[in-house]
């Protein structure tokens, strides 16, 4: 790097926002509202307190909590010291939190009182202290052994250090995010300042953030640092509105009162939004960005009925959240009916502006190890691979796992899909979810979309169940929108859409589907349920 | 840089646009319209022809011409080979072009026929060939010794190389742009792929480019690579509309027919636009970005009357064009009258999102060489300094000049100004233009703005003239909007605005002011004129 370059870091975004828009609203969390000058001050104050608590460059600091002004602040205060933030999923068990603290060598844990309380008997290895941030109503649990936030801040009393909004090396780790680890132990995904900066700019562009944007935090900040929007919203000097729990009533109240312009979430969040009793047509523009699963035609039409604009993005923890976007083509809105549009919107799309290409490659590379793209024919299945500044530095403490994930020079997602002739990628399945029935691959997502194209279907999941004859057979779990519909009717609908060998053997109706804390459907649970009942 | 990073380059923008929006209109130049697939194809074809003509990584390729599809293509084709583009100001004399070709070690010159013709007797040193691009009507002059563009392209016949939209090193030089050199020889300012990429993203953000933007090329592409919008418009997969000459009639025809959403230019371009007989209120949104001189209240109000949105940016050749932006504050539109707004809009503002801070520093650094900021009081004058990814790699072949420009670690602009309490910078003068009268500094810009606040004043320039008693005294050159006004009336108006010692001794009325090819007023010419007439 040339001597004259300045290392890329999202810290610059907060520094700039505080300089250019000091009096503008930056953060709302319950009754508290901070301007950008105050947000920057709180960040400097937290950085000084972290420093006074012994945090040094290269350390890891864990944060266990719901979305809050403090968690947002930690996204800047921790990196300001050259340390790495470990934003931990607040739904994990004490054992899982313990594993993450140990693995990341966290020296402190900050977090919500009720969550820290659960850790009281847990071995947190090198964690020297548990620091309790106030609840949204300002109250504190003062659970045994935790340090109240005010005491923590008081450690830096008299210190007037102003840290520069800079980093010494743009490849320094800014955050470590743990994979959900549906198989095996969670992995520590390392993000760099450079990657966070570029991904945040990509979010600014694709989501269309500007100084008058108002962002509602329906997405957990602990999920890939809120897809880098913890930094992107600040880049635009826009407003962060914290939301601690995704409830329809609260969302609608804030959407209306603050005239929210942007929010993100898994399809389940959109379902909560659309099915709340308070749901109504919006009187201001709202962009909703979704990921985690392709939005179903029903969800798409419900979101449209609200008057919101829906954007579908795709990525993984390893790609800072979104890497790809289903970028709308001007012709879609003019030339296609809503069913055709919905089927295009369900694709994962193309690499974002700040990403590289999204490729789909064959299982077998060429003899020299070069990855070979599948034919862009919409039918040859391969694995989605990604690379570049939008992809992690690697797995912490796992060079072998990192090397394996990057074989051929590209990160292997474990997602299987096709490349359409227009260059848009569509996922057909997670490698681990694909059903092999009589030697044929069945894409659970294809079957799900066939089911979801029926208007009565609101939520859907298809899994493979053991079958003595075929090896595996598809089984579907359905949540309806309240309409009465029989298994036979639905199966007839599906038969008209896909090949008969892909049609599920059985459909089970549910009132809800099990999801992860980030809104993804837990197919492993459904597989277990199904296995319990049909057993080989 | 980590092994997993991909070098930043604006080449990715064209690669992505061609992948994601192959059928979308990319370039219009006269009767020709290219889609993004065609734009990418033309670029690959030009790159192959350059390669067949002996261009190698590290070479410089000069281009001498007005805005055209070919000049735009060269912004991608030349860097695709790892070579550097030298886009030469088309108004320079053959001797100046010769100097630039020699200094940059250009191996080829591409350009417009009539411009290459003027070079026929000129020593171009290492330039092996002059390649003539077709005129907008497709015609060719075939001037002696030039190679027709079709012959040039034919050299790569049968070659089907597809260059990757990548660069090996993000610090590689992508372009060399020569300063206008009002004093001494022009300097060769080196831009890197990294800087061009980041500055282009900054333009995308601040100008608000999106896929449905339509950009009119009123700004010369040879001016700081069109402020990096040669790359930024492509980043958004938006439409480039080439304009070879800035004429009111043509501009208005294209503005209306193509529903242009964005254009850039010096205030003189805005004046041409606003004073054309075809001028009328726009029926679609248009953002006009101006730089080179602060827009006067008259220009601001005329642009507003057209229904366009005006944005003022600031930078130099050394900063890839714009480094700073007068970012509008929400309160300006609601709390201030139009005169107050105009005075704020005339400021140079704050560093862009992808830039660092814009600082104003004292002439004397601290003993250890650290630069000291002036007080943010709106009155202490200092020099504007900049640094980071938005500032050049250095002057080609001039390490001493580069070191001097970067003393204290920041690039010294030569512009003098103040820092206002709100953090916005305002230029008061070029260091070389400031008038020293009786030991007092007089800012020519301050005097100009006092004159420009009179509604009859359309164009204005103030220069220092030698004075036996005071050393120098200000003199004004005025272009009116057609209203009859006397020197005495105007002087009375100015006296009500600024201190009496700053009031010009004389006003000369002109029908136009001498400008550079980039629309800046040539004060040196006015000083010479004034000197001729008042002589000491």
UniProtKB/TrEMBL annotation, chains A, B:
**What Pfam family is a match, any one?**
AMP-binding_C
Is Nucleotide-binding one of the keywords? no
Q: Which species is the source of this protein?
A: Citricoccus alkalitolerans
Keyword annotations for this protein?
Fatty acid metabolism, Ligase, Lipid metabolism
This protein is called what?
AMP-binding protein
Q: Which Gene3D superfamilies match?
A: 3.30.300.30, N-terminal domain of ligase-like (3.40.50.12780)
Domain AMP-binding enzyme C-terminal, by residue range, is: 446-520
Where does the secretion signal sit in this chain?
Answer: none
Keyword Ligase included in the entry's annotation: yes
Classify the source by domain of life. Answer: Bacteria
Q: Where is the AMP-dependent synthetase/ligase domain?
A: 16-396
**Lineage, highest ranks first:** Bacteria, Bacillati, Actinomycetota, Actinomycetes, Micrococcales
